[in-house]
Amino acid sequence: MTTAPVTYREAAHGLLAQAEAELADGDLRQASEKGWGAAAQMVKAAAEQRGWRHDSHRHLFIAVQDLAGESGDPEADRLFASAHYLHINFYENWLGADVVRDHLTRARQFVARLDALPDA
Fold first, then answer.
1. d(CA 66, CA 107)
2. Disulfide check for 47: which of 31, 41, 63, 87 has CB 3.0–4.6 Å away?
């Protein structure tokens, strides 16, 4: 096993902490991007362990669908989509603080679910 899954996993948790700090500071754009980054890093960790591609948004979404099927957790796909709204908000900056907070909650749930998956 390579160290990449651990690195991705550590990055995800660090980004979640940064997202909380950015949200507390009122920087919704940065909080949004850190929330998305955390979710994406966890997908990369799981995909890397399984030998799946994870080098594009497309491959991240495919990996999430495959992980949802593998785990029997259809909510994983919806939670990841919620994190993707955060990514969009980084560019558009149209979500309010309460909405960003809600999507960050879902991103944390997503990270926790992937963190709990057994290693491949």
1. 18
2. 63
Q: Which residues contact 45 (CB under 8 A, 6 or more apart)?
A: 4, 5, 6, 8, 9, 12, 114
Written as six digits, the tokens of 31 are 């909080």
What pTM value is reported for the model? 0.94
- Alpha helices per DSSP H over 25-94: 28-50, 57-71, 75-92
Six-digit token pair at 74? 């259809």
pLDDT tens across the length of the chain (120 residues): 456 777 999 999 999 999 999 999 999 999 999 999 999 999 999 999 999 999 999 999 999 999 999 999 989 999 999 999 999 999 999 999 999 999 999 999 999 999 999 886
